[in-house]
Design brief:
The chain is an alpha+beta fold and 239 residues long. It has five helices and twelve strands. The protein is globular and about 55 Å long.
């Protein structure tokens, strides 16, 4: 191999939620990058290409942050990729996430429209902040379950900006448990000691029209075992 070239990605088969001739939907584990770069030599896409050498085409339809688990769509045909990209742009893909946040999330539903802008930290890390000059971003949050000191909220994305759910929640004063960029770092250390060693953000549901068959696709990925275990250990609020 060429000197200085990257080693080939090891073939890794990730849990498949749906597969047909044009789509491959995975349940991505937390801690896995979706593609190589920024200190990661390969991600989901490189590993899946190595695992499926017979596929001529395989591309990410959208992205998930490295520490977010859950539903990730890949296209096995260019036509499927372009149709799904159009559906995403036009808001025709339903994406619902679950997040555990610090604090008591008041009210049943919050429709949040706060523009977001990307910037680089002094260390060269990519970050996002709420900024009037930013791009429009909309998330609808609903309270799913209340615990003592925490709330499990569902987040429906109406736009797909980088770190959107994480920044919207942090800005509202509800940092996501275990978020190492926008969270409460003292709390994160405490949570790690009590068993939560990742960010509690999970892409739980996806709904879209199949780009080839035209049928409605509704997919679910249950909370991973480590998140279920952590929630079971939380105390219910006193009623």
């Amino acid at each position: 191999s060429r000197v200085g070239s990257r080693p080939p990605a090891p073939p890794v088969e990730l849990p498949v939620v749906l597969e047909d001739d044009s789509l491959l939907v995975l349940d991505k584990p937390s801690g896995t990058a979706v593609h190589g770069g920024s200190g990661v030599s390969f991600g989901v896409i490189e590993s899946m290409r190595a695992a499926r050498p017979g596929l001529r085409f395989l591309e990410l339809v959208h992205r998930l942050d490295r520490d977010t688990s859950g539903l990730l769509v890949l296209a096995k045909k260019r036509s499927a990729l372009t149709r799904l990209h159009a559906a995403l742009r036009e808001g025709r893909v339903r994406k619902r996430y679950l997040a555990l946040v610090q604090g008591v999330f008041g009210g049943a539903e919050r429709d949040v429209e706060l523009p977001l802008r990307k910037y680089l930290t002094k260390a060269g890390e990519r970050r996002v902040s709420v900024d009037r000059e930013g791009r429009e971003a909309r998330t609808v949050f609903r309270l799913a379950q209340r615990f003592r000191g925490y709330s499990l909220v569902s987040a429906e994305l109406h736009t797909g900006r980088t770190h959107q759910i994480r920044v919207h929640l942090a800005h509202l004063g509800f940092p996501i448990a275990g978020d190492d960029k926008y969270g409460n770092f003292d709390l994160n250390r405490e949570l790690a000691r009590s068993g939560l060693k990742r960010m509690f953000l999970h892409a739980a549901e996806l709904g879209f029209v199949h780009p080839v068959s035209g049928e409605t696709v509704a997919l679910r990925a249950p909370l991973p075992p480590e998140l279920q275990r952590f929630i079971r250990g939380l105390e219910k609020p006193e009623s």
